Amino acid sequence: MRGIVITVLSLASICLTGCDNSEDLFSCVEIEGLEAPPPEVESNLPGLHLEIDAIDLTWLYYRDVNSNDRLPAEAIIMPGAQTVSVEGMRFRGNTARYYPKKSFNIRFEQPHELIFDSRRMNANAMYADASMMREHLAMGLFHELGQPAPRTRYLDMWINGIYEGLYLHVDRVDGDLLEYAGFNPDGTLVRDRSRYHGASPSSIFGFALSELPEHERSGYLASVFDRRGQPDWEQLVELVLWVEGATSGEQFADEFEQRIDLETFIDWLAIHYLIADVDSFGDDYWMYLDHEDEHARWVFIPWDKDLSFGSHTRSGFGVANDFFTYERAVEGGWSNRLVWLFLGTPSLREALDDRLQELMHETFDRDYFAGMVDSTYELIAPSVNRLPCPDFVLHLKNHHSAQGVAEDHTEVLLDFIELRYAFLDRQLNAADGQPYQAQVDLGGAQQGDVLMLTDADGWTIARLELLTAPTLPGLLSIEVTENQTVAGISRSWTLDSGASEFSAQLSLYYRNDTHRDDPPDTVNWYTGGETATGEQWRLQMAEVDEVVTVPVEGSRANPFSNKVSAPVVIEPGPQAFVLRIPD
């Protein structure tokens, strides 16, 4: 069977020479960033073993990737070796269908506890997410606040006896999920898909529905929305027309609360800002209304959170890239007039800002995320770290990025939270100052404290985790200036602690924003070209003492979050550092 599939799919370079579990991994396949395979560890996860006829499997990968025709399969779920009848399977997703590692929609003939007593499995490949945690963590935030959101479950997948990767099942948004969330499962449940039907603007809350004849409005919405069951389209028409004709202000606030569940909407909006979800206001949500209850209000349910926690599309690279961003303003997007009106109403904006502060500093602080990331990584690490040969034939690897550096990918999530929160604090509490200059008060700082040096625009220049307490109070300042003599990052970082002295783990952040499609303007300080990582793994922090450049022992680069870290002694007066690639 394997020979047939590989021949048709042009995968003949993979594992056809009798490779086994030998240490000579690169004789099997060369993938950027691969290190020696980790020791064999048993998975912590349930396993789905799919058996598919060789011809059907070949056809699944050979036909149009957008085909939704289901092909037959059989399944065994581990542990327990439970045989489950499969009604059919196909690829799923939009962009995801074009990645080498496919996501699957699998329909079982009977409900199963693995997928929360549903018949429908959405097995997301997470190919564009090198951390393999974004969707799981994002949905967890909604659940933590008691908001309706899909449940998630990790699983390992085998196809015809070959391990094909770590997957995440994401609950289908349907009547089963509504019932689990305590809602009437027979209510109106719809998803805006205007942008896939050539509509402009891309959100229905920007479309001039009033310009259509009255008798065509419901039909138009039905043509550009996904739905479950039998929606009350007239209720949706009323909502869209109201948004079209409304203006920001207190009347809008009053009318908003009459139509939309305010508490749920604020949390829905706030979480999207915390995780900087790129697609949040376009089509990455469902709308629900219990139209059998005359007092019911619309509820927004999140969906598709893979473009979050620093991920962003880049021209020429697409979504599956290693670029990193956190500077996404608290603004609307996707021509979503409902969000713009909300943000333009002072009382609603104040309520959102207050909630953001509460969530950042009390509910979802760094310790919360550190616990969630650590526990999730512990769960999935054996699966994330599986490398080719004899694993992976249909899918070359678990995700698009460098393999064997899972801890670096995981670290990015915590880097993102700290940097994102510092950025949002600047958005919510404006500060004076120049770009690439910042200062922080050392008064009261103790060993173990973390100091973020963030400029007035919200870009963090440096982070210091204090290894000893400062000897004196005062201001610690930093400035980044151009330095074209450096091979690596063409800048110098100058810190000045006044008369104080202390030691710290210092992280310096640099710009690598090539091919970015939205503000801030494209800025790249890396001298090695327009790449996300390149030779940045070799970057080394060095201190400049007059004309002598001295490497800092213990330097460590993580290009995934554009930083270099090292333990340093901060001495009284100015100190200059550079990030260079050694000769």
Overview of the molecule:
With 583 residues, the protein is an alpha+beta fold. Helix content is 25%, strand content 25%. Among the domains are: 183-366, no CATH class; 431-580, Sandwich (Chondroitinase Ac, Chain A, domain 3), CATH 2.60.220. The chain has a seven-stranded mixed beta barrel with strand order 1-2-3-4-5-7-6. Helix 1 (2-8) packs parallel to helix 2 (54-62), helix 8 (262-275) crosses helix 10 (346-363) and helix 11 packs antiparallel against helix 12. 42% of the residues are buried. The model is unreliable at 1-41 (pLDDT under 50).
> Looking at the chains present, what oligomeric state does this protein adopt?
single chain
Radius of gyration: 26 Å
Q: What structural category arises from helix and sheet content?
A: alpha+beta
Average pLDDT over all residues: 90
Strand order of the largest sheet: 1-2-3-4-5-7-6
Could you name the ranges where pLDDT drops below 50 across 5 or more consecutive residues?
1-41
Q: What proportion strand?
A: 15-25%
Number of helices: 12
Largest sheet: 7 strands, mixed, barrel
Q: In one word, what is the shape?
A: globular
Ends distance: 50 Å
Number-wise, the strands total 22
Please describe the structure with a list of short key phrases separated by commas or semicolons.
single chain, alpha+beta, Chondroitinase Ac, Chain A, domain 3, six-stranded antiparallel beta sheet, 25% helix, disordered N terminus
Summarize the structure.
The chain is of the alpha+beta class. It has 12 helices and 22 strands.
Give the SSE map.
Layout (H helix, E strand, L loop, with lengths): L1 H7 L38 E5 L2 H9 L8 E8 L3 E10 L12 E9 L5 E7 L9 H11 L7 E8 L2 E9 L4 H6 L7 E5 L21 H11 E4 L4 H13 L4 H10 L2 H14 L9 E5 L9 E4 L34 H7 L2 H18 L2 H19 L21 H23 L8 E5 L8 E5 L5 E7 L8 E8 L5 E9 L5 E8 L30 E6 L2 E4 L4 E3 L4 E8 L3 E7 L3
Parallel strand pairs: 1-6
Antiparallel strand pairs: 1-2, 2-3, 3-4, 4-5, 5-7, 6-7, 8-9, 8-10, 10-11, 12-15, 13-14, 14-17, 15-16, 16-22, 17-21, 18-19, 18-22, 20-21
Helix pairs in contact: 1-2, 5-6, 8-10, 11-12
